[in-house]
Design goal:
Layout (H helix, E strand, L loop, with lengths): L6 H12 L5 E4 L5 H10 L4 E4 L13 H11 L1
């Protein structure tokens, strides 16, 4: 619901799930491209993220193509 990223939760997910090799995805809260970078940083590159209502294809302000390009640049 575009409420922002819970940095503490993302850090905990990275700490507990990443250390034992369990794939984990943080869902919700993305508002900007900076939020994607924040999850990447706080999640130590371990935590994946979903983007939903913030996308322009769902009526939000975040360009779908920008998110796809960002994702592709990570790989």
């Amino acid at each position: 619901m575009k409420l922002g990223i819970d940095e503490e939760l993302v850090e905990l997910l990275a700490e507990y799930c990443g250390d034992i090799g369990i794939p984990v995805t943080y869902a919700g809260g993305v508002r900007t491209m900076e939020d994607l970078e924040l999850v990447k940083k706080c999640g130590r590159g371990i935590v994946d993220i979903t983007v939903g209502s913030a996308l322009d294809i769902f009526g939000g302000d975040l360009a779908y193509t920008d998110v796809v390009n960002w994702h592709n640049a990570q790989n």
